[in-house]
Specification:
about 110 residues; alpha+beta; Rossmann fold; two-stranded parallel ribbon; 3 helices; about 35% helix; binds flavin mononucleotide
Length: about 110
């Protein structure tokens, strides 16, 4: 790696260390434009590294962390109901985080 790449990778490892050292995960997740805030997405994109936060054997995803429980609290300003103009496929907040959390043994 170049010096810049090494520096970036060590910063990513520091961030992953926060998850690796934790014995619980607590996430407060507001809905932003039907999804999650971009800073949280950026944290996920930086830290969700194979064999650090999750495993993948070419077929199945699995956990790499040893966190027995996670608490995710979802908030949003509006109510979305069946039959309204907001399609269910726009609902990217809880299902996405629930999926990620269940693969670090936190479900
Ligand atoms: C940039 C931004 C985008 C938002 N997008 C949505 C949205 O798509 N749907 C929704 O229900 N609320 C949306 N909200 C409202 C937040 O979900 C709400 O502010 C958050 O859940 C915290 O609640 P509070 O403002 O009452 O503290 C948005 C807020 C911000 C700042």
């Amino acid at each position: 790696m170049t010096d810049t790449e090494s520096h970036t990778w060590s910063r990513i490892q520091e961030l992953m260390g926060r998850f690796q050292r934790a014995n619980r995960s607590v996430l407060g997740v507001p809905m932003w434009n039907f999804s999650i805030p971009y800073k949280l997405k950026q944290l996920i994109d930086l830290t969700a590294q194979r064999n650090y936060l999750f495993t993948y054997d070419g077929k199945e995803y699995g956990p790499s962390l040893n966190i027995p429980k996670a608490l995710a609290v979802y908030t949003r300003g509006s109510t979305y109901r069946e039959g309204t103009s907001i399609p269910p496929s726009f609902y990217h907040q809880a299902p996405y985080i629930d999926f990620l959390a269940s693969h670090d043994r936190s479900a």
